[in-house]
Design goal:
Layout lengths: L3 E3 L2 H11 L7 H4 L5 E7 L2 E10 L4 E10 L2 E9 L2 H14 L5
Parallel strand pairs: 1-5
Antiparallel strand pairs: 2-3, 3-4, 4-5
């Protein structure tokens, strides 16, 4: 089953103006082999924040979204903070390749 990305068009435009990232490129984070997905709760709602190093931007990007059935609803797309970037690289180094 193919996952479909959805978003509010007004939110997409405001996100682009604020962060310079277009929701249309979110697949670069979600399709990465090195994508870190963490559950979060914001405003009483369950969401997921996904992190991945994206070569086309040469940085770690953060994508906030939720998933319903076969759709991923995009909420926010931005460059990861310095703290988030450090945690992401520690995950890559120490946890990503640990045998389970």
């Amino acid at each position: 089953m193919e996952i479909k990305l959805t978003w509010d068009q007004t939110k997409r435009q405001s996100n682009f103006l604020k962060h310079g990232l277009d929701f249309d490129h979110a697949y670069e984070v979600l399709s990465s082999r090195y994508c870190l997905n963490l559950p979060i709760q914001k405003l009483g709602k369950q969401r997921i924040i996904s992190f991945s190093y994206v070569l086309s931007h040469l940085c770690v990007l953060a994508l906030v979204h939720n998933q319903r059935h076969d759709q991923i609803r995009l909420i926010s797309f931005r460059k990861a903070s310095k703290e988030e970037t450090i945690k992401y690289f520690k995950w890559l180094e120490y946890e990503r390749f640990e045998p389970k």
